[in-house]
Amino acid sequence: LKVVVFIYLIGALFMAARLVFGFILSQRLIGKAKKINYGSYLIALHPDFVPASFFRYILMPRFDPDDDAQKQIILHESMHVAYRHSWDLLLVNFAKVIFWFNPLIYLFERSLREVHEYQADQGVTTCFSPKE
């Protein structure tokens, strides 16, 4: 029994450290990024970023407000910000610290990310019609 508890605690500690380290790393990169107000959103620009959202920030490697492709990406990421998807993912990551041993938590996370993408894509398609 002590071995099982020890293994559980090591796994939980590892997952907690991974969560904290990832959050700190993200905050440092955002701190180094150039910030731009774009409408009601904050865009953080850094060459190491891939298009994403992180709480109230839209992360982009570069920004050209006249580029239609970038406008679509920013709209997509702004949907994630508006729906507060980062909070959902943070909650799932807290659950992963506790339930790291259960494969269902990883399936749940993957399903949640998929739903988030569908929601964000739906917001984009209301503004941009598909090319024919």
3D structure, described in words:
This protein is an alpha+beta fold and 132 residues long. 64% of the residues lie in helices and 13% in strands. It contains four helices and four strands, in the order αββββααα. The chain has a four-stranded mixed β-sheet, with helices on both faces. A hairpin with a 2-residue loop joins strand 1 and strand 2 (41-45). Helix 1 packs antiparallel against helix 3 (85-98) and helix 3 (85-98) packs antiparallel against helix 4. The radius of gyration is 18 Å and the shape is elongated. The mean pLDDT is 94.
Identify the overall geometry. elongated
Per DSSP E runs of 2 or more residues, the count of β-strands stands at 4
Strand proportion, as a percent range, falls in 5-15%
Low-confidence stretches: none
- Spatial order of the strands in the main sheet? 1-2-4-3
Mean pLDDT: 94
Number of helices: 4
Helix content: 55-70%
User: How far apart, in Å, are the first and last alpha carbons?
Assistant: 63 Å
Secondary-structure-based class equals: alpha+beta
Spatial extent as radius of gyration:
18 Å
Order of helices and strands: HEEEEHHH
Sheet with the most strands? 4 strands, mixed
